[in-house]
Write a structure and sequence with these properties.
GO terms for molecular function: metal ion binding; transferase activity. The protein is built from six helices and five strands, in the order E-E-H-H-E-H-H-H-E-E-H. It is of the alpha+beta class and about 170 residues long. The protein has two domains: about 50 residues, no CATH class; about 110 residues, ApbE-like superfamily (T-fold). It is globular, with a radius of gyration of 20 Å.
């Protein structure tokens, strides 16, 4: 008995390299619509990159970091990322702390002006850690969210953004 199996050929593979979140990413998709899938994935990654970049003045992260303690409206996606990060922060005893951004800046990783800070400088910046004081508010009637961080506090999604993109 011979069966025709027209759909059992090798699936088409497509790849695309994307630079986002300060990382070169290689995306791979299989199937008839692989190229469309790669383009859609690139759009999602680019959107996250723009939304989460703490140095981009139009980003959500920049708004949070410069709100000086005021509430900032955030998307459901950002609220979910913050909620998950808060959960991991608590479960890990603070090992994942998105408010490490002032320390990252001190070392020059943001502007590529690398610098070896003194222990005193590091300790001064570590005093700004405040992820335990981040307040995430949900407004169920409208489906909206707001976040506030103590004045002077700053966050970076650098430790979690690529995982969210994946």
């Amino acid at each position: 008995m011979l069966l025709a199996m027209s759909g059992c050929g090798e699936a088409k593979m497509s790849q695309k390299q994307v630079f986002a979140m300060d990382t070169i990413m290689t995306l791979t998709a299989y199937g008839r619509n692989a190229d469309a899938g790669l383009n859609a994935a690139q759009q999602v990654i680019s959107s996250l990159d723009v939304m989460l970049d703490p140095e981009l003045t139009t980003s959500t992260t920049y708004a949070i970091n410069n709100a000086e303690g005021k509430n900032i409206a955030v998307s459901g996606q950002v609220a979910k990322m913050l909620s998950t990060a808060q959960y991991v922060y608590k479960k890990s005893g603070g090992a994942l702390d998105l408010s490490i951004y002032p320390v990252i800046k001190l070392w020059g990783f943001i502007d590529d002006k690398f610098y070896l800070p003194s222990q005193e400088e590091v300790q001064a910046e570590l005093q700004k850690l405040c992820f335990d004081k981040l307040v995430l508010t949900s407004f169920p009637s409208s489906g909206s969210f707001a976040v506030s961080l103590p004045a002077g506090g700053q966050i970076s999604f650098g430790s979690v953004a690529k995982g969210c993109a994946a």
